[in-house]
Write a structure and sequence with these properties.
This protein has 14 helices and five strands. The protein has 339 residues and is mostly helical. Helix 2 crosses helix 4, helix 4 packs across helix 6 and helix 8 packs across helix 10. 28% of the residues are buried. The strands form two sheets. It has a three-stranded antiparallel beta sheet, with no helix packed on it. It is found in: Membrane. Keywords: Membrane, Transmembrane, Transmembrane helix. This is G protein-coupled receptor 160.
Length: 339
């Protein structure tokens, strides 16, 4: 497909008066450079001692694919016109490769989030797990299968091929890129769910935030929240929802605000930029919170349970709720300490 499109379009880029392809290629190079730096920065600053998960391996694979795309753009931009394995590569292929990546990224939001959600739902409360090496191999297999399926669908569907050809024919110097409707719908659904949760327990959220105190524990600043224990199942679920919201928004509030601004302004972001490691970890924390909410009665209070999320500490949400394991000093009216 690449060779065929190259024959039809690459000759346009050899005319000296036309400088737009070079400008577009440089812009894509700078955008991908910034995205790759952000991806690897997030992978570096996250907590290292966390349980293996599907989303963790998918984030690593996404960072690697972004890095490969960046290398391809840089090599083609530097060599300008060369042949490899019988295929001629020009600056046109910078746009083509970015379009293919955008289409692939844009179609993987639903399957990735579905698999990650099922993974957390089934493993969030497990105490006996499969061997660590077996889980790693399983997650690697699933990640590779998803990527191969995504690229296979994009490269073998004739309608997508024709759409790429039409776009590049009518806008040869603009490099039109795919915008994912899946990501937009996920953002809307998340904001709606968080808004409904805030409406349900807004009084508890305000009360808990007003009771916050800053203290020092083991030489580190901590936050202390007062709480009142209640054995009612309804109150238990509402208190848990309140704490899940506080923990999630305490870490990802800027991201939530950014999503609201993007949706309010109606901005459309190309799919190759929209799927990034920070966004995936944001979704990851949301899915973990949903899994905790759905299986709250099955969660066991072990240190391994809290090492699920590389950015959010969910220990605060559950420690006072397990009435059977509550120590004598942990009675109604005491405080919860978040490290």
């Amino acid at each position: 497909m690449a060779a065929l499109l190259c024959e039809n379009c690459s000759s346009r880029y050899h005319h000296p008066p036309l400088s737009r392809p070079l400008e577009i290629s440089c812009m894509l190079l700078l955008v991908m450079l910034g995205k790759v730096c952000l991806d690897f920065f997030m992978l570096q600053v996250k907590h290292k001692k966390v349980k293996v998960s599907f989303m963790g391996y998918f984030c690593v694979s996404l960072a690697l694919l972004d890095f490969i795309l960046l290398l391809n753009i840089a090599v083609i931009l530097y060599l300008e016109d060369f042949a490899l394995w019988g295929v001629r590569f020009t600056k046109y292929h910078i746009c083509l490769f970015t379009q293919i990546i955008s289409l692939t990224y844009g179609t993987l939001h639903y399957p990735v989030y579905l698999v990650a959600g099922l993974d957390y739902y089934m493993t969030i409360a497990q105490t006996s797990q499969l061997p660590r090496r077996g889980r790693r191999l399983f997650y690697i297999f699933v990640v590779v299968f998803i990527w191969i399926s995504g690229f296979f669908c994009i490269l073998t569907v004739p309608a997508i091929y024709e759409e790429l050809e039409i776009r590049n024919h009518f806008s040869p110097y603009q490099c039109p890129l795919y915008v994912s409707v899946q990501s937009y719908s996920v953002s809307v659904a998340m904001l709606v769910l968080m808004g409904m949760a805030l409406v349900v327990c807004w009084k508890e959220v305000i009360t808990m935030l007003l009771s916050v105190r800053v203290a020092s524990f083991a030489g580190q600043p901590v936050l202390m929240f007062s709480y009142v224990s209640n054995n009612s199942s309804t109150c238990f679920k509402r208190q848990l929802l309140t704490r899940l919201l506080i923990c999630f928004l305490g870490t990802w509030a800027p991201f939530v605000l950014l999503q609201f601004i993007i949706l309010f302004l109606g901005a459309w972001i190309p799919a190759y930029m929209e799927m990034n490691v920070p966004w995936l970890y944001f979704i990851n924390s949301f899915l973990i919170a949903v899994a905790y909410w759905c299986r709250c009665h099955d969660v066991e209070l072990t240190e391994e349970t809290w090492s699920t999320d590389p950015f959010v500490s969910w220990k605060f949400c559950f420690m006072p709720f397990n009435n059977e394991n509550t120590e004598p000093g942990e009675k109604p009216g005491t405080v919860i300490v978040i490290c």
